[in-house]
What does this fold into?
Amino acid sequence: MSFADRMSYSDYLHLDEVLNAQSPLSTAHDELLFIIQHQTSELWMKLAIHEVSAAIRSIRDDKLEPSFKMLARVARIFEQLNNAWDVLRTMTPSEYTQFRESLGQSSGFQSWQYRAIEYMAGNRNLAMLRPHAHRPEFSEKLEAILAMPSLYDETILLLSRQGFDVGADAQRTEWRENRVESEEVLTAWQTVYQDPERHWMLYELAEKLVDFEDYFRRWRFNHVTTVERIIGLKRGTGGTSGASYLRKMLDVELFPELWRVRTVL
It folds into this structure.
């Protein structure tokens, strides 16, 4: 029972640093909830980046089985992120107003890790680099992601290596911009879905990507619902239009042909 000279649970997890990382700026009871919800979300996003990065490498190396496990884990991570909104929604508008001014201009859209996940998945909105310009170390990480194919780019390149016609996507060399939806890629996925047994690995990968985006969409929806429930249609703390800005994000598709293929089957 003595851990004076051995590594303990607290030592391994650096719990002193973790549990002392909450510094409310007001006396409001609910500010601690707000801080912990966002801090734990950032920890889950750190793990999501770790898993998506590994999945991208696996797909690039034609090692699909490991990527299935990694993408399944990312979906479960976003399930946890979704559940976190349920806790935050226990805070009422009156309780939030007690400490909102303490937040200054800080806002969730300034999360570089969230932006990294968006960029890695394929939504490459370059305008969203600007909120990170004051932190060169974050900008460098995001630029490194933009210089490489996204998760969906690598999947389409895999389709090409497997003999499918993916049109202009097979010749892409510039990855910073959002790709254009392609009829050739849609036809390729249609072929996969019409004969799953013959193309089982691609079929399984496609469904793992759809799972990921399914949970990601739910996260966005829960985000906007929570914002509307707590601040209504007021502007966000970081200067965004708040709920209306978040509603626009609900229309963003990460893997468009994988959703269109359901209609053409």
